[in-house]
Amino acid sequence: MKILLRLLFIIIFAGVTTYITTIETERYESVSIALLKDLSKKQNMELGSLALGQTSNNMQDSKVLELYIRSYEMFDYIDRLYNLSEHYTSTKLDKVQRLYKDTLLPMYESSKNNLLKKYNDNLFVVFDEPSGTLSLSFVHTDPEIAKKILQSIIMRSDIVINQFAKENAQV
């Protein structure tokens, strides 16, 4: 029994190692850090609000921004610019990472939900509350496209957030 378990472990280990070293598509990550600041308001947070577990406006703003960045609206915008849907179904990706137009496995189907999930799997968003910064990164098979996608996400987010702030100011 112990020999079978060891053999099974060795086979799984060899298979995973072979996949990672020879088959898996090489992907590149582009990273950017954005400072979130509302210049129209004072940004101080009182110690009492920390003790009560209340979140800062920056934290709330970052969560709203993250929701927008991960939304289908943002994916659709990026898809129109960089054709991510075609990329996620192309042979540039290995068979494990690729989505398929005709498949019996729903998790590999190139549906709207799976395309959005694939986009979100390649997107990383982390808010650092003490510094008020939002760290963004995007993974792609082409390092230049990863960089351009990240720049487009930041520019589009800036436009949408400023438009939202103007609309709220008018109300």
Structural features, described:
- The structure is a single chain.
- The protein is α+β, with helices and mostly antiparallel strands.
- It is built from seven helices and three strands, in the order αβαααααββα.
- Strands 1-3-2 form a three-stranded antiparallel β-sheet.
- β2 and β3 form a beta hairpin.
- The longest helix is centred in the C-terminal third of the chain and has 28 residues.
- The chain is elongated, with a radius of gyration of 21 Å.
- The termini are far apart.
Short overview:
This protein is of the alpha+beta class and 171 residues long. The protein has seven helices and three strands; from the N terminus they run H-E-H-H-H-H-H-E-E-H.
Key terms for this structure?
3 strands, three-stranded antiparallel β-sheet, 171 residues, alpha+beta, single chain, 55% helix
First-residue to last-residue Cα separation: 72 Å
Residue share in β-strands: 5-15%
Number of β-strand runs: 3
Low-confidence stretches: 42-55
Oligomer: single chain
Tell me the radius of gyration. Answer: 21 Å
Number of helices: 7
Arrangement of strands in the largest sheet: 1-3-2
What is the mean predicted local confidence, pLDDT? 81
Indicate the topology.
Elements: H1 2-23, E1 28-35, H2 47-51, H3 57-69, H4 72-82, H5 84-88, H6 112-121, E2 123-128, E3 133-140, H7 143-170
Antiparallel strand pairs: 1-3, 2-3
